[in-house]
Amino acid sequence: PQPVATSAPETTRPLAAAPRMRVDGVDVGQEIGGVIASLGSALSGIGDPASAEAAVSELAAQGDRLAAVGGLVEKLPPAGRQALTALLAPQFAKLEALVKQVMEIPGVGPVLGPMVMPLMAQISGLLSS
Predict the structure, then answer these.
(1) DSSP one-letter string for 7-73
(2) What is the pLDDT along the chain (129 residues), one digit of tens a residue?
(3) How many CA atoms lie within 13 A of 125 on its CB side?
(4) Which run of H or E residues covers position 92?
(5) Beta-carbon count within 10 A of 43 CB
(6) What value, to the nearest 5°, has the Cα angle with vertex 31 and ends 21 and 95?
(7) Could you tell me which residues come within 8 angstroms of residue 59 by beta carbon, excluding any fewer than 6 positions away?
(8) Using the 8-state DSSP alphabet, how is residue 129 labeled?
């Protein structure tokens, strides 16, 4: 099987334009956007169970990165949370489509599902808070 012909979600919108998305010295929008982009990059190279296994360490690293910044979202003011959602929802939608496509590759779902699906739920929760 060939790798899935997709591109990673882009995070090209100006992150600095969003109202107050910096918490404890961390640009929350930029960090979560980076996680989304990195997850997309890791997933876009998957075409079989072996490449899925190879991507597990990168996916785990992004999970750790997301966990580190996830608690900061609650500290954002309401306008900041709304801006975060508006900023990252389009990239997250692209990532969701990519995840669906990758998970349909025979043998990949059992390898990645236990790791990817909780990450997707966590990002979705952060963007809907």
Answers:
(1) -PPP--S-GGGSSS-EETTEEHHHHHHHHHHHHHHHHHT--SHHHHHHHHHHHHHHHHHHHHHHHHH
(2) 555 545 555 544 444 444 567 888 889 999 999 999 999 999 999 999 999 999 999 999 999 999 999 889 888 888 888 999 999 999 999 999 999 999 999 999 999 999 999 999 999 999 986
(3) 12
(4) helix 78-103
(5) 27
(6) 110
(7) 39, 42, 112, 115, 116, 119
(8) -
